[in-house]
Amino acid sequence: MNQSTAPLPHGVDPAWLPSFALRPLGSRRIRIAGSGPLVDTVRGEVAAAVAEHGGVLVDSQEPVDLDLICGNGGTEAFTVTREDRTTTVHANGGPGLLYGFHHVVRRGEAAFDGTWTERVAPRQAIRMLDHWDNVDVHPVMGQVERGYAGGSLFYDNGVVRADLGRVAAYARLLASIGINRVGLNNVNVHRTEARLLTDLLPDVVRLAAVFRPQGIKVCLSVSFAAPVTLGGLATADPLDPEVRDWWARTTADVYAAIPDFAGYVVKADSEGQPGPFGYGRDHADGANALARALKPFGGTVFWRAFVYNHRQDWRDRTTDRARAAHDHFAPLDGRFDDNVVVQVKAGPIDFQTREPVSPVIAAMPSTRLAVELQVTQEYTGHQKHVCHLVPLWREMLSFRPWGEEEGTVADIAAGRASGPAGGVVAVSNAGDDPFWTGHPLAQANLYGFGRLAWDDRLTSAEVLDEWIGLTFADPDVRGPLHRLVDDSWRTYEKYTAPLGVGFMVRPGGHYGPDVDGYEYSPWGTYHFADRDGVGVDRTRATGTGFTGQFPPPWRNLYESPETCPDELLLFFHHVPYGHVLHSGTTVVQHIYDTHFDGREEVVRMAATWAELEGRVPASTFRRVTELLGEQLRSATEWRDQVNTYFHRKSGVPDARGRRIY
Ligand code: GCW
C-alpha cells in the first residue's frame, strides 16, 4: 500500500472520505488502464476500496462496472459516460483520472445508474491553499498564524515532522476536492522559515514528495530580503545584478531538488515584511526579479497585493486602508511578467464578515490576478462558531464588477473576462486537531472552498449537500444540518459588526467583541461612531474617494446611500442613527434587531444540533455541542456589548423595549 492510501492515524476523523463513502465504488468490478504516478495513486485507492468493500480490480477484457481509462497527457479534465451498465471515466492524463475517480466517489450510487455523459473540467487552472504555518513556534502567533485547529500538520516545534502520515492523508483530502497547489509556510517569513529556501530545502523535498502523488505542487513563501539575510549580500534591490544572480542560483538549486516546484509566494512591504519600497523600487520591479529566476523552470510568483500603511495615525482622515491595494497596484497594470500572479484579497480591507469586492480585481486587465479568500476563521469565529463561508465566497466570486452584462470575479481569475488567468487561493483552516479543522462543521468550509475553486457555478447549498452526503452516513441528518449550517454566515454577521462596518473585534487575537478596540489604533480600521451616527465616508463627494476606484455601475451605486446595498452601507457611508435603510428600519434599530435575532438564531442552532444525537458519530456530537455552548456565550457577549455601545452613544431606545445594559 502506498503512503497516499495508508490508513489514518488512530483517532483522526476521516472527514469527507469515510469508509462508507467509498462503498458504492469499492463494492464493484473495476478496471484501470494507463500508467504513471497519478494512475498508481488511483490504483492504490481502488485496491484499498475493493479490499474493504468486496469488489474486484480486474485487468482482463471482461465486463466491469467502472472502467477508468487514462491517456498520457497532463490535463485535469475528464469525461464520465454511463451506458450498457458500465461507468467509464476517460481522462487524457493522470490528474484527470484522479479527479474523475473522486467525482465517481462523490456521485456515490448514482454514478452506477442510468445512461448519461458528463464532461467535467475545472473552471480555474490554479486552485491553491496557502498555509500560514511556522516551522518554529512564533512567540505571538504560535505554530500556525491564525490557526484554530491545533498545531501545524507539517511542522512541530522547529522541525518538519518525522512522520508525514497525516500530511499524506491531508493531501488526499485536498486532491479529492481538486486542490492542485499548496503554499507550505507563512507569508510572514520569519528567520527559520526563510531557510526553507536554502539549507532546509531537504525538508521541502520531503513535503513535496507527499503532495506529488495527489497531483499537488508546492510553493514556498520567501522573504524579499533573502539575498541579504541568507545570501550575505549588501542589498536586496531587485534591479541589482548580484541580487538577480542570487535569486537565479538559489532558484536553480530549488528546481534541481524539486523539478515540479510551483513557485514563490511573496508578502512584500506589508505589515513589516521587507519589499522593493526599501530600495526605491515598485512592486512590478520586485515581482519581476523573482519571476525571471523562476521563468526557466516554469515557476510562478504569487505576489500579494495586501500592501497598506499599518502605522497610520487615527487622526488622519485622508488615508484610507481600503484604497491602498488599488493605489499601489492598478498603476502597475501591464508591467508584470507573464509568470507573475498578483494575489488580491477578495475584499479591500481584510477578510471581514462583509466587505465589497476589491476594486483591484477589475482594474488590472493586463495582469494575471488570483483572488485570495480566507478559509481559516480569523474574523469569523475562530472555528469555535459555526460560520459557513461558502455563501460569502460564492457571492464574491459571482460579483460582476462591470455590471450585469459583463464577467464575474471568478471569470476574471480564470482568464475568461478581461486579461489572463490567475486562479483562486485561500488560507487553509486545517491543523493537527483530530477533526482537522477544530470545529467539525468547519470541514465544510475547506471542502466548499475546493469545490467552488473547481466550479464557481455550484450553489452553496449544493456544495454543502455533497459534503453532508459524503461525511455522514445517516440520510436523516441532511435536513437538520442544512437548517443549522446554510445561513450561519448571515447569523454570524447579525450578532457581530453591523452593515459592513467591520472589525469591532478584540485587537490582536480578533475573537470576541471590542467595539472601540481598533478605533484609536494605527491599523486603519475605524468605524467613527459618535453621538449622531456611524460609518466610514468613502464617497468621492465628501469622503476618501474609494468609491471612485470601482468602474460603473458600482462607483455610482456605492456613492449614494440611496443606492448602496444595506449590508455595505457603513462601509461606504457615515450616516445618522435615524437613517432609514431599504429594509424600512433605521440604522440603530437594525443594529438592535439583528443583534437580538442573531443571538436567538444561535439558540435555535443548538436545538437543531441536539436533534442529531445518535445520528452522527459520538465524538463529533460532543465536540459540536461543546462549541455551540461557546458560540452562544460569545454571541450573547457580542449582542450585549454592541447594543449597549450604540444605545449609550445614540441615546435611542430600542423600539421593542428589550433589555439593553
Ligand atoms: O488579516 C491579517 C492577519 C495577519 C496576516 C495578514 C496577511 C499572515 O491578521 O495575521 O498575516 O492578514 O494576510 O498577510
Automatic annotation (TrEMBL):
GO biological process terms on file: xylan catabolic process
Record-annotated Glycosyl hydrolase family 67 C-terminal domain positions: 437-658
GO terms assigned for molecular function: alpha-glucuronidase activity; xylan alpha-1,2-glucuronosidase activity
Pfam families in alphabetical order: Glyco_hydro_67C, Glyco_hydro_67M
UniProt-listed Gene3D superfamilies: Alpha-glucuronidase, C-terminal domain, Glycosidases
A Gene Ontology cellular-component term: extracellular region
Domain Glycosyl hydrolase family 67 catalytic intervals: 120-436
PANTHER family: ALPHA-GLUCURONIDASE A
Protein name: Alpha-glucuronidase
Organism listed in the record: Umezawaea tangerina
